[in-house]
Amino acid sequence: EFEVKVSNKEEVYTSTKPQKIVEELALMKAENVASDLQAEGVELKNTIVIGADTIVVRDEEILGKPKNEDHAYELLSLQGRAHEVYTGVAILSYNNAGEKEIINHAVETKVHVHEMNEEEIRAYIATGDPMDKAGAYGIQGSFAAYIDGIEGDYYNVVGLPVSYVYQQLKKR
């Protein structure tokens, strides 16, 4: 059984490397949710809290979510070349005494995107799909037609490296 709790803490980080940024944000989210649960009176024994954060990076530049359609067009300049997607996963594992173990790791996937002409980019933006996604695309939606291939975990690009999380949880 699991329950989804959203961290409403402002995402502020001090790291400068993409892998470290997502690790820092994932841990911040997990710790914020754990703190909120404790404030609600939940005893964190035999409990696991997972936090995750995903970013898209091209040429060392973090590509966030588009502010508007023009910004989405700019972000989609990642087409025709490769870029990286990093997801930080923080797992707070509380044992039956309430003692916490922290697992914090970033998973990287390289994504190769086929060249798109202006009409294709504008049509994709018109779907509305890119407007709430880092890098202005979702690999699992209609943008899949432009993915030449990936090196790494597909689910990492979707937003959670499921196999990594499962393997870590299996150890506990």
Features:
5 helices; alpha+beta; 31% helix
Number of strands: 5
Low-confidence stretches: none
What's the Cα radius of gyration?
18 Å
Q: Which word captures the global form?
A: elongated
Q: Into which percentage range does the β-strand content fall?
A: 25-35%
Whole-number mean pLDDT = 94
Helix content: 25-40%
Account of the 3D structure:
The protein is of the alpha+beta class. A 5-stranded antiparallel beta sheet has the order 2-1-3-4-5. Strand 3 and strand 4 form a beta hairpin. The chain is elongated and about 60 Å long.
Give the SSE map.
Layout (H helix, E strand, L loop, with lengths): L17 H22 L7 E12 L2 E3 L5 H7 L6 E13 L5 E14 L4 H9 L20 E5 L2 H5 L3 H10 L1
Antiparallel strand pairs: 1-2, 1-3, 3-4, 4-5
Nutshell version of this structure?
This protein is an alpha+beta fold and 172 residues long. The protein contains five helices and five strands, in the order αββαββαβαα.
